[in-house]
Amino acid sequence: MLGRGIVAAAALACTLLTSATASAQQTLEAIRARGQLVCGIHTGVAGFALPDSRGVWQGLDVDLCRGLAVAIFNDPSKVRFMPLSSSTRFTALGSGEVDVLFRTSTMTMLRDVTLGLRHAVTYFYDGHGFMLRANSGVTKVAEMRDATICLIQGTTNEQVTADYFRSINTPFRPVLFERTDQASAALQAGRCDAFGTDASQLAGVRAAMPSPRDWTILPERFSKEPYGAYVRRDDAQWFDIVRWYTYAVIEAEEQGVTSTNAEEQRRTSTNPNTRRLLGVTPELGEALKLDRAWAYNVIRAIGNYGELYNRTMGPDTPVGLERGPNELWTKPGGLLYALPLR
Predict the structure, then answer these.
(1) I need a surface site. Which of 5, 98, 228, 299 has the fewest CB within 10 A?
(2) In which order are the strands placed within the sheet that holds 194-198?
(3) How confident is the model at residue 184 (pLDDT cuts 50, 70, 90)?
(4) What does pTM read for this prediction?
């Protein structure tokens, strides 16, 4: 009887585990049933996520959300954007309010192992910097003794700033804000001597100011800030979709597939990698339970990574950022690298 009891208990545990696993694998199904992807984005910073004059969200993160909707529905409009503050973004994802975060979120060890979330893949490399008035006379951060510094609550930038000033035995006064626009307003009003956050976001903030030339971003960088999409830890299928979708956008640039030539490439290319990427052969879509042409549809709708970058924050935009580490790995200094899609 003891043996039968052990067997029964094991069977029950196996049933519960199977049931729990099945219930966890529901994100894609829930999105399809809802008819809409819900994407967590920044509350507003140029280059990543900011409404234009018509109230339409624009930016790198926004377009990555639209592209993911295309991968699922072949329709970039089937996405609802949820602007989230730095202090609420991970809670909103964990509670199921959003399906994915494309929201200037740095991967760190503690975030990865303690929040019940997964960082899917890095799609942007940045570093912490400081912005202050161009006429301040300050040329390096070590000269900012006793400075009042605007910071965003709930970001890695709080810790990076405190750690650096402690390391050089220099006091400073932090002023914390919930949102980037609040910190920017305080900086312009003179409540802070400087604003500390990731350099790309500083460039976006400066681009939205009435007089961008009045502000300078110091050249020093004090941290590694790899941005990545975040998903909940309990759904391996959804993790795979977000991860390989992002790699596909990068891979398209590596292969020279663009929004304008994708159709021709799909029709004429003899490159096995390109044929797989564009769904001429179906295995990538089948593996992710998506349409065989999912990546082709994405590239046609939003372009490859280079196209995304150049139109949202590149040198010809008001943000005006050179690609730097966000170049492909085949270019000098580039870190972007798509794992093999095969």
Answers:
(1) 5
(2) 173-177, 148-152, 194-198, 128-133, 215-217
(3) very high
(4) 0.88
Which among 253, 254, 246, 236 has a CA at the least distance from the CA of 71?
Answer: 246
Closest to 194 measured CA to CA, from 163, 172, 162:
172
- The single-letter DSSP state of residue 313 is T
Q: Is 206 helix (H, G, I), strand (E, B) or coil?
A: helix
Q: What is the mean pLDDT of the chain?
A: 92
Matching residue, tokens 């093999």: 340
Per residue in 309-330, pLDDT tens? 999 999 999 999 999 999 999 9
Give the whole-angstrom CA distance, residue 99 versus residue 231: 7
Query: How many C-beta atoms surround the C-beta of residue 159 within 10 A?
Result: 13
Note the maximum CA span of the chain.
85
Whose CA is closest to 45, among 191, 141, 167, 179? 179
